[in-house]
Amino acid sequence: MSVPVDLTDRDSLVKAASTSLNSKVISNNSSTLAPLAVDALLSIIDPLSATNCDLRDIAVVKKLGGTIDDTELVRGLVFTQKVSHAAGGPTKVANAKIALIQFCLSAPKTDIEQNVVVSDYSQMDRILKEERKYILDMCKKIQKSGCNVLLIQKSILRDAVNELSLHFLAKMKILVVKDVEREDVEFICKTVGCMPIANIDTLHAEKLGKADLVAEESTSDGKIVKVTGVPHAGKTVTILCKASNNLVLDESERSLHDALCVLRCLVKKRFLTPGGGAPEMQLAYQLSKWSNTLSGMHQYCVRAFAEAMEVVPYTLAENAGLDAITVVTELRNRHNAGESAAGINVRKGRVTNILEEDVLVPLLVHTSAVTLSTECVRLILKIDDIVVTR
């Protein structure tokens, strides 16, 4: 009863993603989010030969402000923090050479918590001069490597960057984005082709990433930094989620993740099945038919398994506020008559051909559910006794 699907057939993938999104809070925006999820997935795989995909290559970035309709696909990077710059620092760089550093551009601190008391003014002046020279030397090494966009990983030990270093970098026309999270480092490196640099002495031109444009853009709730025109555009992609409040924003992120998981199932096993309880009812019908050919205990087991399958359409009908017994009986009769695509249409409140309604579910979802639930029951049945311990 499953229908083969071609990953180059974008419309079929959009229908499968829409089915996933239609049960969510943001179901009214499924026509916007479903094509975005499909385009994001197709941009990181080869539709002809792919057998799996890594969803970590699709970054979902949340930004408050606007509506869900403003959600967009960016073939590059998006940082929700604004550019850190002193007066006169750049906010837009073309032909960017990007460095990702994991050290701090600020005065060093002692390993243990202690205070240094300076009573002589000349010594104090010397400390300030040494600090200035130390930071300036670091900034000059960054400039010498050819870097014009600097990404600084967030530091928990001390300030990753201070006003003095931002002043020097602004004079050198280097764009700075600070507070990059540790878990984003791998994605950034994969996207722009750079390498994380842990020490200033290892900062060389070959460790820099590239992009056509790095620019700061204004949104209704602050500013973001977009990196576009990256050399490895087919490896990663970013979805920039927007919404008017945090609740809708979080829900849109979860819904997009669910839609991407559905599409990943289609990459693994390229078949679509009708939804609406149709596969479970068809399985129940075929198992009941097979049980009539068996005898003894096996017949009872298979028949009980078939009856258990009917719980899914029964629960679906109950949740939709329908008369579960009437609807499931009609569904059973339709499947007995050979209509394998008949399913419960929640919107119309009756049994219809669910394929015509575009309610489609990947085959892997159904097979995984049946396999895992059966294995769970077998595991429970193997338990002979329970020892209660305190």
What features would you describe in this structure?
There is one protein chain. With 390 residues, the protein is an alpha/beta fold. 41% of the residues lie in helices and 20% in strands. Strands 4, 5, 6, 7, 8, 9 and 10 form a seven-stranded mixed β-sheet that branches. A three-stranded antiparallel β-sheet has the order 1-12-15. Helix 1 crosses helix 2, helix 1 packs across helix 6 and helix 7 runs antiparallel to helix 8. 33% of the residues are buried.
Task: Set down the secondary structure blueprint.
Layout: E1 3-4, H1 10-21, H2 30-44, E2 58-64, E3 72-74, E4 76-79, E5 92-101, H3 121-144, E6 149-153, H4 163-171, E7 175-180, H5 185-192, E8 196-197, E9 209-219, E10 222-228, E11 237-243, H6 246-268, E12 271-274, H7 278-291, H8 297-309, H9 311-319, H10 324-336, E13 342-345, E14 350-353, E15 360-362, H11 363-381
Parallel strand pairs: 2-11, 5-6, 5-8, 6-7
Antiparallel strand pairs: 1-12, 3-11, 4-10, 5-9, 9-10, 12-15, 13-14
Structural class: alpha/beta
Please report which band the strand proportion falls in: under 5%, 5-15%, 15-25%, 25-35%, 35-45% or over 45%: 15-25%
Low-confidence stretches: none
User: If you average the pLDDT, what whole number results?
Assistant: 87
End-to-end CA span: 51 Å
Radius of gyration: 29 Å
Order of helices and strands: EHHEEEEHEHEHEEEEHEHHHHEEEH
Number of strands: 15
- Biggest sheet features: 7 strands, mixed
Q: Helix amount, in percent?
A: 40-55%
Shape: elongated
Count of runs of 4 or more consecutive helical residues? 11
